[in-house]
Design goal:
Layout lengths: L9 H11 L5 H8 L3 H9 L6 H6 L18
Helix pairs in contact: 2-3
């Protein structure tokens, strides 16, 4: 059986990054990740979703998943 890759919510990514950079300023985090301090602050506060650049710099990637809703349409 193939092991599933662990997935994270945006909030879990925020928490991971915040804990990894505990005690650092948004400016320091931004310099490390190659992003602006303002953008880092907006993502970590939840005002913005993590962008592709933010995710890549933090070692994550966006994954889209779908599931059936239970409604039957078209057979």
């Amino acid at each position: 059986m193939k092991k599933r890759d662990r997935t994270y919510t945006a909030d879990q990514v925020r928490k991971f990054v915040a804990e990894h950079f505990r005690g650092e300023t948004h400016e320091t985090i931004g310099l490390t990740l190659g992003l602006s301090a303002g953008f880092v602050g907006m993502v970590l506060s939840g005002a913005r979703e993590p962008s592709k650049a933010f995710l890549q710099a933090a070692g994550f990637e966006r994954v889209v998943r779908y599931r059936r809703s239970g409604a039957r349409h078209g057979g």
